[in-house]
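Hi W.,

Here's what went into the run:
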Amino acid sequence: MTTQAGITVRVPAKVNLGLVVGGPRRDGYHELATVFHAISLYDDVTATPADEITVTVEGSQAEDVPTGTDNIAVRAALLLAERAGVPDGVHLHIRKGIPVAGGMAGGSADAAAALVACDALWRVGLSRDGLCELAAELGADVPFSVLGGTAIGTGRGERLTAALARGEHHWVVALAGYGLSTATVYAELDRLRADRVLPVPRVPDRLMKALRSGDPAALGASLVNDMQPAACSLAPSLRRTLHVGRDAGALGGLVSGSGPTVVFLARDAEHALDLSVALTASGTVRDVRRARGPVPGARIVDQPR
Ligand code: ATP
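Here's what came out:
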């Protein structure tokens, strides 16, 4: 929406349907092969003209989000202003619907939304490719937050190709009452695999085939996350959450990215409701959401929440 009140961009959370992690690189990052999938849990970022670049945050975990230049949405606006030679400021207001430090790329989503919103507000007119190039400078997950859908990520996850994927899927998202730092989970993964020689990461053929077929049962059986043992080692209650979902008939379940959010695949919308009731009743999770995927990436919306 473009009014005096500003431009609002809605941006989805991501889950990794497959996350295959290679060994640590010289630069400290890990080589990945991943399948990103955008689901219908959203942050809204509203950009309004201002003298400086500032941010405010609202939502259930707003107090966990920094409001200075360490907020990645502010860094996105600063980067675009510098590269496009824009002298203006902007005020960014973030309404968080994506869990913070949940392994769903909430910060990356806000960076993508800020790029799209400021590009429109300042009339820079970057293409999607231009936005994705800037996005990759901000973080490995940011380009995917710009694009959305279902995509294969390689490198650190920033090199994207669209995935051949059919159908709409129904997800149940189990939120934990705490966060896990991505860096700590990678360190635990390296510790657990210290004596292993790791092959070049590759998305398993089985998962690619399941995506092409659109069959939720095949997809559920092919979900894979190399980071899951490390997340469960740091937060053992995640194993219980995974069991509850599977016992309640989920087609598949896995820790999302570095966790601690756990996602389950349901047969359909009704099954998703049954799963969310079972997870809520188990008392193992802070909250449960239902979501659809794939959904588009960061886009300007008419109706801010
Ligand atoms: P990923 O899945 O990309 O590994 P995540 O979803 O686990 O990330 P985020 O929600 O992106 O984690 O937050 C990670 C940390 O980044 C937070 O603890 C917070 O301090 C910081 N941060 C900076 N900017 C933001 C933002 N706009 N929203 C959320 N967190 C932010």
